[in-house]
């Protein structure tokens, strides 16, 4: 089992290290998505505090 | 925390992606980085899993815990605020690093804690969380069935006595029997429960509003608040931050299966956030309307004896499926990130390892079940700093880049080798965060400090751990050339384990 695992791991690592990463690496989440999430959280917290407190 | 719906999806999809998981080469069940074809979830697939995750019996416990401290309006606000903060943080890490490289989440943590250090984190988090959650749910199973027996046979059995413990043990043994047969049996058991539980939650909401108007509900006092209303509100927020953080041990391995960064990030907002908030709010309403903190005592007053008993039976089995999900997720983590030893351990033995502690804890039903808030606190005291250290390490110190080969190399040859495979400075940062938490909110007595009403406990713990990790890494680790922070490309080396 372990030999099969090692061989498969090596195969995948070589693929990952090939140009383009063999499609195994996703692009980063765009920063505007993170900014939108933060803005949404701040707005939500503000509304909730205004309503409930 | 996981539930039947998630289990249903993962086991079905994982099976189609590559084998049963015991052959050592099914990447979704071990620590191999995933191939594109093994990423099986798009946005809506992961959203469905996520929503199923949130709608489980622990949502009732969460709602009841919040109802202790605040009324309906502040409960809604505190749940929304608390979950928004912690779900955002766990969506950043472990979700995004695991999704980006398709790596098992505790393998990813080797970059932060070293290969041996990450194993320590994995075993502690996987086993402790599984044991604690399984015990809580098993005792809830016992409470529910004792209520059924009381109502059907007209007796009055103690909710803190041997009957609850023995029934809790039955739940643990049932879970072991199902889990020991492997993922397929988990799937078939869980497939039925999740939709029925959604119906019960909707039913509870309808029943509550047939008995109370919104204005009546909003005017009901909390069950057992702090003397200062502001402190009560902040404790409620803290409980919900902790509730969101409780997803940390499992959610990275789900995001790992997604096909894009947005599919790894945004579905958490539909499931871990929106569905958790909805289910917990229903729990708050029921607890306040009935002035009862134990969810298993809500059903008969709300729905009558016949429907109430049926609902309790379903909830009893829903507790078992939740134990299955939690146990299964922990086993996948242990098998995936545990190296040769755990990868070769037979599935039933691993199940016994996971559920054994729960089988002991069920014999202390009051200590476990009546201290849900403290239990959440014990999770958050570790997870808030862990999450912080991982976020600053991955996004700030490494600019979102990991050397994947080094994650799998032996410590002596890996840039993530640190000192004997352990990054003591990362652990020191986590310890400092945990100490900060304990100083602000005593995890044993649950008595807040004088600063707590202005800070909560999880947020300062997060900030202290994250800041300290950056300072210690830049001061000690980077100058020594350890940890692979220099971002220079390394020559590919052979993989040796």
Ordered list of secondary-structure elements with their pairings:
The complex is a heterodimer of chains A (53) and B (497).
Chain A: H1 2-17, H2 31-52
Chain B: H1 4-18, H2 43-54, H3 57-69, H4 72-101, H5 105-108, H6 110-113, H7 115-153, H8 162-180, H9 183-211, H10 214-219, H11 229-245, H12 248-255, H13 261-265, H14 267-290, H15 299-337, H16 339-343, H17 347-361, H18 365-369, H19 372-397, H20 404-408, H21 424-440, H22 452-455, H23 458-477
Helix pairs in contact in B: 1-2, 1-9, 2-14, 3-4, 3-11, 3-14, 4-11, 4-12, 4-14, 4-19, 7-8, 7-15, 7-17, 8-15, 8-17, 9-14, 9-15, 11-19, 15-17, 19-21, 19-23, 21-23
Task: Walk me through this protein's architecture.
The complex is a heterodimer of chains A (53) and B (497). Chain A has helices spanning 2-17, 31-52. With 53 residues, chain A is mainly alpha-helical. Chain A has one domain (2-52). Chain B is mostly helical and 497 residues long. Chain B has a single domain, classed as Orthogonal Bundle (Hydantoin permease), CATH 1.10.4160.
In brief, what are we looking at here?
The complex is a heterodimer of chains A (53) and B (497). Chain A has 53 residues and is an all-alpha fold.
Q: pLDDT average of chain A, as an integer?
A: 93
Q: Which oligomeric form is depicted?
A: heterodimer
Cα radius of gyration of chain B in angstroms? 22 Å
Radius of gyration of chain A from CA coordinates? 22 Å
Second rung of CATH, namely the architecture of chain B: Orthogonal Bundle
Report the β-strand fraction of chain B as a percent range. Answer: under 5%
